[in-house]
Design a protein that fits this description.
By secondary structure, this protein is of the alpha+beta class. It has one domain (2-157): Regulatory factor, effector binding domain (Multidrug-efflux Transporter 1 Regulator Bmrr, Chain A). 21% of the residues lie in helices and 37% in strands. The chain contains four helices and eight strands, in the order E-E-H-H-E-E-E-E-H-H-E-E. It has an eight-stranded antiparallel β-sheet. The longest helix has 14 residues, at 107-120. The protein is globular, with a radius of gyration of 15 Å. The protein starts with a strand and ends with a strand. InterPro entries: AraC_E-bd, Cass2, Reg_factor_effector_dom_sf, YobU-like_regulator. It comes from Tunturiibacter empetritectus. It holds the Pfam family Cass2. Residues 1-158 form the AraC effector-binding domain. This is Transcriptional regulator YdeE.
């Protein structure tokens, strides 16, 4: 794990409100968001995109990881002008982020394992107190094979 400081950026994609309890019991929305984005090739319809790495954003937290949040899956963009209907733009604020790299394996296994690890970390282990403003996952070339995926989770810190 490392700590990085970076400036803010925008992500445009498909979003829904959910919570971790719903995701654990099979009533969540994250799987459907992934399905819609990939099935309908929605990433190709996002204007002003910066690269091809998918970004999964957790933002608009109700309180912390136990409450509701907005989950957005999309691409980083250079501008939020002309965002098509049915797409959502969210700003990832600048600041300090703890970068946690997952193990390599099936994406459906390594993503929840990585979040479990983050939730169990002390403030000292994480490198600071979580801000619950925005966290995000990066799906780059290491995650093109969903059975041997590796992702990075950026955890917003105060």
């Amino acid at each position: 794990m490392t700590i990085q400081q970076h400036s803010g950026f925008y992500v445009v994609g498909v979003a829904a409100r959910t919570d971790n309890a719903a995701e654990r019991n099979g009533k969540g929305k994250i799987g459907e968001i992934w399905h819609r984005l990939l099935r309908d090739n929605l990433a190709a319809k996002i204007p002003n995109k910066l690269g091809i790495d998918l970004i999964a954003v957790y933002t608009d937290y109700e309180k912390d990881h136990n409450g509701q949040y907005t989950y957005l899956l999309g691409l980083p963009v250079s501008s939020i002008h002309n965002v098509p209907a049915k797409f959502v733009a969210k700003h990832i604020p600048g600041g300090r982020y703890a970068v946690v790299t997952s193990n390599r394996g099936p994406v459906t296994k390594v993503v929840p394992e990585t979040w479990q690890r983050i939730w169990s970390m002390s403030v000292a282990e994480l490198g600071g107190t979580r801000s619950f403003r925005a966290d995000y996952e990066v799906y780059d070339q290491r995650s093109t094979d969903p059975e041997k995926a590796q992702i990075e989770v950026y955890v917003g810190l105060r």
